[in-house]
Amino acid sequence: MRVLGSCLLLAIAFMALPPPAAAEGLDYNLVRLDAEATAEVPNDLMRVTLVVEHQSRDAAALPAMVNGDMGWALGIARKRESIRAQTGDYGTQPEYASTRIVGWRATQELLLESEDFAAASELVGELQQKLQVRGMSFLPTRATRERVEADLTREALKAFGARAQLIAESMGAKGYEVVELNVGGTPE
Questions:
Q1: Three-state secondary structure string covering 81-93
Q2: What are phi and psi of 123, to 5 degrees?
Q3: Helices (H), ranges, the chain
């Protein structure tokens, strides 16, 4: 008997061990088997996007205004060792009245990332003197995701082996052989 498996986290295929001479070229007694393992993954990383925005009738005046506020914000943020800070997108847009350009608007993002939620929240509060919060998200760090995925892979393999053995025994097979193995996790 052969069993093929696929699952959300882990997929394994196996076949019962037929006599060696009969093993070549056989494609019957195929059984599909799925095994998976899931877990709650802690969100231990905070990402915040803040933006500085200025308007002016003179487009040439905007970079100095935006850069001044961004320099101020980066100076404060980079003093916090537990917080990673970097600038993000910069953009300038015209402002219209009817069909005429009457002014300009410039924005630049500041991206913060930290595992220290209290320090990041405190910094965001301070930076809101001159910047606005555009977005905030919480997600697992790469290390946490990889650790949980490794644990789940072991768990799914164990569950798959137990189910495969149960099926093989229930169908009168003496054992099984892995024919195909697909292991996958959820994408980042």
A1: CCEEEEEEEEEEE
A2: -65, -45
A3: 20-23, 62-77, 117-127, 142-170
Read off the pLDDT of residues 6-47 as tens digits, 9 standing for 90 and up: 232 333 344 444 445 445 555 566 777 777 888 888 899 999
Among 67, 50, 62, 69, residue whose Cα is nearest residue 94: 62
Cβ neighbourhood burial of 187 (10 Å; 0-12, 13-18, 19+): exposed
- CB-based burial, 13-41: b 16+ in 10 Å, e otherwise: bbbbebeeeeeeeeeeeebebbbbbeeeb
- Report d(CA 75, CA 67) in Å as an integer: 12
Q: Can you give the pTM of this predicted structure?
A: 0.71
- The residue among 129, 128, 179, 159 whose CA lies nearest residue 16 is 179
Tokens 């005429």 found at: 100
> Residues 62-82: pLDDT tens digits?
999 999 999 999 999 999 999
Which amino acid belongs to residue 24?
E
